[in-house]
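Hey,

The postdoc asked me to send both predictions to you directly instead of through the lab channel. I've kept everything plain text so nothing gets mangled by the mail client. Protein one:
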Amino acid sequence: MGCWTNDSQSGVHRRPKQEEAIEMEKFGAAGLILFAAFLLATGLVLRWDLIDWLIDAVGFLFIAAGLITGAVGLIRLFTGGRKGGAEAF
């Protein structure tokens, strides 16, 4: 067989560079619109008092998860679950 490249394939049709550039510009414009919407939504949430409540709620979830994980760890330590007891040392 010989060297195989994209140019050697007879069935490959390439679009002109101009059409590819127009598609990239459209994609760039759509990306800018999405980014603008994201910035607006983020700005509104930050200006609203919702962010204080959200920070408090996430903090509570971290504290609750820490307490639960610590309790499970202590229970496994004292009961020897999954070789976590004194015999693990």
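Protein two:
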Amino acid sequence: MTTSTFRTNGTSSKTTGLPVAVIGAGPVGLAAAAHLLARGETPLVLEAGPAVGASIRQWGHVRFFSPWKYTVDAASVALLEPTGWTLLDPEGAPSGTDIVQNYLEPLAALPQIAPHIRLGARVTAIARRGHDKMKTPGRQDAPFVLRIQCPDGTEEQVFAKAVIDASGTWTRPNPLGADGLPAFGEAAAAERIFYGIPDVLGRDRARYAGKRVVVVGSGHSAFNALLELATLADQAPGTEIIWAVRRAQVGQLFGGEENDALPERGRLGTRTRVLVDSGVVRYTSLRIAEVRRTDLGLVLVGEDGEMLGPIDEIVCATGFRPDLALTRELRLNLDAAVEAPSALAPLIDPNVHSCGSVPPHGADELKHPEPDFYTVGMKSYGRAPTFLLLTGYEQVRSVVAAIAGDWESARNVELVLPETGVCSTSNSSGESAACCGTTAAVVLPVFNTRDAQLLPVLGAASLSSAALAPNRTGLITVPLVTPSATNSCCCAVEQTACCEPAGKTSCCGSEAVLTSSGCGCR
């Protein structure tokens, strides 16, 4: 029988001397610990898994789009370099396993970091000590209390002066159902559904070899799965591959391809297009409502009754969502749709735009009515699919500065991201519509990343294109583009879509108003 013990790291109702709790020991969580140490704060890193980088280890076979130089944090490197650690090929693209073995494990083993990490410590709830969500008097001075489930089934609780939630979203994949709910029958078929990117050519080979497999999703997770399945099909006769997406037409499904400022990402789209064009992968559109068991295999049933199958295995690559249950007793201000902090949500909402780069942001955009609680990293983006790893590093730099009381530094957002060259808005027809943007915008083919798995996707500095040449900082210099008078938000013609809502004022003036769900001005 499971028992509970009551152990704490203190009994004082004051926050003096308490650590800053960091939930998650992935790249962003460990970066938060490094920044806290640099500020003279004490981190307490609580990792649910048995090792650091537990989520990344589950997709260790997947290669990042971004090179090594964009996957490490400055404060973490400052701790590593005195030990003789060196960055591997700065321009090389590491796999998830490379990141764990050559960066996260050495970082976590440092004597400055290691004593502050607790593995197998799953945070199940967070509150203010002695204050439920409704109680206001004295709330701001009360420490946070975090309930922890231990590997042996017991419970503990710890107190903290502040909380940085960097737990990510990997453990909360989106379901197959087009309405956001698990498709009818999905749970009953769970043993035949893989959520994420299976290791088709490695540990999961036997599961897919010679089988009828459908991949659901329209992002780069799906691309990776399709490409590995195609390789398997060459080696294992009888392997059949179907790709099911929720959109009616292919359109610009494959992204910018050769025009993509991220070459590795562009090549994924190009290689996937070849698979579809050659017939190796059969493409279909289906908004899934039911997973039905039959004697011949699983059948996917659409909202209008159309059927796909029979099939043996399903790969669900439809993205992820945050686990909000552990913060029910905190006062958070989250966007109703994106489930990101309300100030950040308009910058990343895929209903408005799908740009690979997001305006720099920090503690001001991430703060909540609950002082000193911040969500960072992938989880800060809620359900949005455009997270970049360097963004998470800048988030924690700013947030730690705010926790330390240095709001000047917290508000001095220092991040400059490489341009991706891919940006779109969605109009009522569901197709992408490009319009004017800021004067530095480049209009390139569009990629809708609604269902993308969220991996770091930087690396534009490796481009050889003269139009998007890297400057001495390794970032992209984008040539100025002047929109034509007939396709400009600045002209008298009413426009129903505009690339960036944040740019409406400079582009259209203060009277700019929305004209569609895809944003725009007139």
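Summary for protein two, as requested: The first strand starts at residue 20 and ends at 23.

Thanks,
C.
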